[in-house]
């Protein structure tokens, strides 16, 4: 199997749809035939819950992976979804910033650990902070996908995030790309959301995914059943949108490869 494409799903703002995107983009890519590994890098463990990993079955965890106690193969569990597996997180991860900060290679830990991942796509669900965990994800990744909730402060937060991406490029990962900005939980009846979307498209152009994820109650219900929404309610608006994002993701990557080939 060729090297996986590794994507960090990051935004330091909380509750913008990172985990929902990791789970549902992952499930939709799996449906398209790709083997997908989710890495839950958030001490809250929401991605692990969202794909039905029992809290008692979260060791070895992503913390053990970072600290070098386990291999990615040992830490990976299958889920009930074909071709979708996960390295779960448990609360050990909440002290990772402190525990791992003394290591000289502290931002390279995940990169070293995922080198042997056997998947087409690795999606890393980051916590809502730009600390050591998110840095590890950005150093390991080839790109960063940024879920953005269309609201007043969204674009301000984005400049901070883009600054961090530039710093990571300079320090450790010169080829790190922005995979794209995905507008989430959109409500087309909300004028402010419409304005923020227009601003985002004007400032960021093609970086913004054409697909917009609508606010949809089925999306918010599905984690409590331990299933991605595309399995919980396959015909819901949220499912349709996440399937469209997956197709766009694949098409954009094909276009990039073509560009790279033809110079
Ligand atoms: N499209 C949507 N429609 C309705 N609810 C949504 C949608 N996307 C996400 N949610 C809900 O919004 C909340 C926040 O989403 P999510 O957990 O994915 O954000 P997050 O960025 O991962 O949060 P955190 O920063 O805490 O990790 C969750 O309760 C989720 O179910
Ligand atoms: Mg989350």
Structure, briefly:
The chain has twelve helices and seven strands. By secondary structure, the protein is of the alpha/beta class. α8 (154-171) links the parallel β6 (143-149) and β7.
Keywords:
263 residues, alpha/beta, Rossmann fold, seven-stranded mixed β-sheet, 14% strand, binds magnesium ion
Q: Kindly identify the CATH topology.
A: Rossmann fold
Number of E-state strands: 7
Query: What strand order characterises the main sheet?
Result: 3-4-2-5-1-6-7
Return the domain count: 1
Proportion in helices: 40-55%
* Amino- and carboxy-terminal Cα gap: 25 Å
Low-confidence stretches: none
Structure characterization notes:
With 263 residues, this protein is of the alpha/beta class. The chain is 43% helix and 14% strand. The chain has a seven-stranded mixed beta sheet with strand order 3-4-2-5-1-6-7, with helices on both faces. Helix 8 links the parallel strand 6 and strand 7. Helix 1 crosses helix 12 (237-261). The mean pLDDT is 95. Magnesium ion is lined by residues 18-19, 42, 46, 125.
SSE blueprint:
Layout: E1 5-9, H1 18-31, E2 36-40, H2 46-50, H3 62-66, H4 72-75, E3 77-78, E4 84-87, H5 96-100, H6 109-114, E5 121-125, H7 132-140, E6 143-149, H8 154-171, E7 177-184, H9 191-204, H10 217-221, H11 229-232, H12 237-261
Parallel strand pairs: 1-5, 1-6, 2-4, 2-5, 6-7
Antiparallel strand pairs: 3-4
Helix pairs in contact: 1-12
The structure holds adenosine-5'-triphosphate and magnesium ion.
The site of adenosine-5'-triphosphate (ATP) has 20 residues, from helix 1 and helix 10.
């Amino acid at each position: 199997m060729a090297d996986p494409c590794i994507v960090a799903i990051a935004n330091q703002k909380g509750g913008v749809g990172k985990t929902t995107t990791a789970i549902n983009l992952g499930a939709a890519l799996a449906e398209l035939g790709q083997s997908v590994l989710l890495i839950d890098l958030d001490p809250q463990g929401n991605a692990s819950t969202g794909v039905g990993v029992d809290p008692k079955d979260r060791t070895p965890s992503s913390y053990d992976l970072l600290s070098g106690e386990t291999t990615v193969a040992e830490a990976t569990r299958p889920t009930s979804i074909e071709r979708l597996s996960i390295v779960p997180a448990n609360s050990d991860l909440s002290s990772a910033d402190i525990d791992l900060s003394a290591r000289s290679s502290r931002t390279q830990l995940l990169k070293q650990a995922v080198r042997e991942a056997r998947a087409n796509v690795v999606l890393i669900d980051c916590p809502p902070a730009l600390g050591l965990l998110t840095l590890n994800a950005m150093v390991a990744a080839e790109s960063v996908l940024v879920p953005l909730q269309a609201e007043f402060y969204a674009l301000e937060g984005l400049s901070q995030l883009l600054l961090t991406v530039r710093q990571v490029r300079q320090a450790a990962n010169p080829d790190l790309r922005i995979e794209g900005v995905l507008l989430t939980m959109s409500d087309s009846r909300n004028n402010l959301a419409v304005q923020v979307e227009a601003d985002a498209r004007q400032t960021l152009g093609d970086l913004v995914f054409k697909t917009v994820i609508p606010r949809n109650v089925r999306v918010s219900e599905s984690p409590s059943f331990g299933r991605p929404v595309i399995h919980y309610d396959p015909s819901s608006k949220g499912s349709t949108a996440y399937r469209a994002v997956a197709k766009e993701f694949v098409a954009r990557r094909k276009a990039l490869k073509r560009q790279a080939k033809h110079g």
